[in-house]
Amino acid sequence: MIIQNREFYSFFLCILILLIVMTGCGGGDSGDSGRDNDQVNGSDSTAPTIPANLQATAISDTRIDLSWDTSTDPSTGSGQATGVTGYNIYRCAGSCTPTTFLTTSTTNSYSDTGLTAETPYTYTVSAYDAANNESSQSTSANATTQTGAATYYYVDPDWAGTATGDPSTPWTSLTSSAWTTINTALASGDVTVYFSAREAGLDTEEVSTLPIKLERTDNSTNRFTIDGMSKYNTNDSVPSWNNYSGDLKHVIRNTSNSSIGTFNATSVIGRNYITIRGFFCNPGSGASQGIYLRQFSNGIVEYNKITSQVGHSVGPALILTYDNTNPVNTRSQNVIIRNNIIQDIYGESIYINGCKEELTCSVAQDDILIENNTIIDSGSRGGEPDGIDIKNFITNVVIRGNIIYQTSAGSGRDGITSHSVAIVEQNYIEGMGRNGITFVDYAAYDHHDVALDGGDIRNNIIVNTGGGSSSWQYGILVRSLNGDYDFRNVKIRNNTIYGLTEANSKGIYVNEDDSAASMTGITVENNIVADVNGIEFHATTGTIGTHDYNNFYDSSGGDIVNYDGLIYTAANITDFEQNSISQYPIFVNISAPYAAENFKLQSASPAINAGTTLTGFSDDYLGTTRPQGSAWDIGAYEYEN
C-alpha cells in the first residue's frame, strides 16, 4: 500500500512538472509557447521594417553584388525592440518571384558568386531580429551576369616581377604597353582589369600613386571595366588572386591629373562603354578632379569613394564634361553614376557640364542617371559647395535616391541644383547652407528664347536647409532670372520639408524675377511643409497652375502662404486651397540627429489619406506603392500599418 502511494505521488508530480513546462511558468522557454508568453509580458513581437532600395549589380560572369538600405526594428506598445540581427536573401533564376532561400547576411550587402554567365537572376531580402521576427520580403531586384567570354587582367603596384597583366604576373599600373594589350582584346570581347583591393598580408588599403588614364582606342561596344573592389592579390611574391567582399577599395592617391580620367578623348577617339567600379580616389595638392569624364557615352561610375586630401584645390569631385572646341561630338549619352560616396572635397561633388551661350549646341549631355550616391560635406576643402550641379541643355536627367548632407548645418550651398529639366525624386537632403533643391536658369549658360518645359520634384525629404551666408534660404526653389529662358510646368509633389530656421526662409518658393519671363504652370500638390521660420509657401502671381492637397503647418501659428502679397494662415488656408490642411503632421521623430525615417508618419497623422491621386508615379520615398489606405498620403512617405 505504501508503495502504491509512492507511485501515485510520483505520477502526480510528473504531471505537475509537465503542466508547468507547457504553460511556461517559472520563466521557462519552450519554443513557440515561450515566444507567445514573451509577447504577453511586453517583449519584442514586431518585425523589422522591410529592407528598401534593393540593388543588384552584375560584377562579372559569375558574380552579382546586392546592397540595400538597413532596416530598423521598431518597438510596439510596451514591448522593447531587440534590434535587427540579419537579413534573409532569396533568389531565383530568370524573371520570377524569389521563394527559394539562398543565405543570410549580417550586413546590408552580399556578393552572390558561382553563378552562370549571361543568366538573369532575381532577388528579394527580408530582415529579422533577435526575437526571430521576420519582415516581409523586399521589392525584387534583378541583374544578368556578364558574358563568359570576357578577358581579365590584373594590377598590383606591389608586384616587382615581370608584368604581363596575367594573374601570376600582374601589371603595376596601366602603361601604354598595357593599353595596347587591352585595346587588342577589346576588339573581340569585354575586358575587365582588377586592381588589388587590399594588401596581401593585411586587410589594409592598397595604394597607387599614379592616376588611371583611360586610354581606350577601340570603338566597339564591348565593355571595358576597371574594378578596384572585387579581388585582391594574396601573395606579393607568388601572386594569387581571391575574391574580396570587404570594405576596402584600391586607393589612387595622386598629386597630378585626375585620379581617374578620360583625359584625351576626342570626337574620333571616344572613351565609351567603360565602367569605373570600386576605387577610392584621394587627390592631393597639385591634382585635378577625383574622376574626370569626357566622351563617356554608355559609361557607368559605381561604388567609388572620392575624398580630397587637405590642400587639394581643384573641383568638382566628379565631372562629366565635353571638349569646348567640339561640344556636339564630344558630349556623353546614357551615363549612370550610382552608389558612390563623396565626402570632404573641393567644389561640387557631382557636376554635369552644360552648353554655354557662346557655344553652338542645343543638347550638351543626354540620358544621365544619378542615383543612390551618398554626398557628405561638399566643398569642405573650398570651392562651390553644391552636392549635385546640373548645367544647361542636358536632357533626360534623373536624380534619384541620393543622400546629401552637411555635418555642420548651414555649410555647403545647394543639395541639388539644376539648370535643365530633370526628374528629382526620393532624395534625402539635410543641413545645406542655401537650398535643398533648386531649379533656376543660369545667365552664363543662357540661350534665351528657350523655355525649360517640364520637370518633376517628388518624394524628396528636405530638412534644416539655409543658415549660410546667401540670401537664398529655401527648401525647394523654382526661379526665373533671365527673360524667356525659364522653367515652366514643373511639378512639385509629395515632398516633405521641415525645420528651416532662418527668418527669411521659404519652404517652397516659386519666383519670377524678370519682367520678361513667362514662368507658368507650376504644380504644387501633396506636399508637407512644416515649421519654416519664414513662410511655408511663397509664389508670385501667374506662376502657379494646379495647387492643392498640401499640409502647410507652422507650430507658432504664423503665416503659412504668401501668394503675391495675399497672406494665408491656418485659419483660412482653405480659401487658398480647398483641400489643403494646416496641422502638425505627427512625424515619428523631429529630434536631431535627423534621418529620413524620422519623417515617416505616425498612425494618427492628419496627412494619411489626405492627398489626391497623381499621375507619372505611384510610389513613395521608399518605393512603397501608393495608396496604402483609401487615398494617397500627403508627404514623401506613405503610411504602412
Describe this structure in words.
With about 650 residues, the chain is mainly β. The protein is about 10% helix and about 30% strand. The protein has 5 helices and 49 strands. The strands form 7 sheets. It has a 13-stranded parallel sheet with strand order 8-9-12-17-20-23-26-29-32-36-40-43-46, with helices on one face. Strand 1 and strand 2 (about 65) form a beta hairpin. It is globular. The chain starts with a helix and ends in a 65-residue tail after the last helix. The model is unreliable at about 1-40 (pLDDT under 50).
Radius of gyration: 28 Å
The backbone outline, from C-alpha atoms, is globular
Averaged pLDDT: 87
List the total number of helices. Answer: 5
In short:
By secondary structure, the chain is mostly beta strands. The chain is built from 5 helices and 49 strands.
List the helices and strands and how they pair.
Blueprint: H1 2-23, H2 32-40, E1 55-58, E2 64-67, E3 84-93, E4 100-105, E5 109-112, E6 120-129, E7 141-144, E8 151-155, H3 176-186, E9 191-195, E10 207-208, E11 212-213, E12 224-227, E13 231-233, E14 241-243, E15 250-252, E16 260-261, E17 274-277, E18 279-281, E19 291-294, E20 300-302, E21 305-306, E22 318-321, H4 327-330, E23 333-338, E24 341-343, E25 350-352, E26 365-371, E27 374-376, E28 388-390, E29 394-400, E30 403-405, E31 416-418, E32 422-425, E33 428-430, E34 437-440, E35 452-453, E36 456-458, E37 461-463, E38 474-480, E39 487-488, E40 491-493, E41 496-498, E42 506-512, E43 522-525, E44 528-530, E45 535-539, E46 544-548, E47 551-553, E48 561-563, E49 566-568, H5 573-576
Parallel strand pairs: 8-9, 9-12, 10-15, 11-16, 12-17, 15-18, 16-19, 17-20, 18-21, 19-22, 20-23, 21-24, 22-25, 23-26, 24-27, 25-28, 26-29, 27-30, 28-31, 29-32, 30-33, 31-34, 32-36, 33-37, 34-38, 35-39, 36-40, 37-41, 38-42, 40-43, 41-44, 42-45, 43-46, 44-47, 45-48
Antiparallel strand pairs: 1-2, 2-5, 3-4, 3-6, 6-7, 13-14, 48-49
